[in-house]
Known about the structure:
With 142 residues, the protein is of the alpha+beta class.
Amino acid sequence: xxxxxxxxxxxxxxxxxxxxxxxxxxxTDPSAGRVLLSITVTPAPADAAASNGxxxxxxxxxxxxxxxxxxxxxxxxxxxxFFVSNPTNPPATIATITATGNSTATxxxxxxxxxxxxxxxxxxxxxxxxxxxTGSATLTCP
Length: 142
């Protein structure tokens, strides 16, 4: 009877220890297996004349797993970012990014500049390759 009681106590101690180890294990990466498929940037198109030369753009991603669509994280494994595709021939700065937030970028037209530029959001796909997904919207400066 004493031997049986010691066996039960030993089994209970092992069960408690195993449960504690499992509860201390790192959480599963929520982005594991979740692949970015496309990016939509809004508003598209945007006219800066109606907003004192400044527009805030938002990027949303379509993902292979829920939640989708959803904001694009600016952290690994997606590492999203915005940029303005100003003309290179001839070089000119029509607009620049003045602020960024969670899947947003505020773009300001340069003083005296006029024309249209692409505001581009990009992020890695998170599928084990170097694939970068992009989406864009057009900003027209007065």
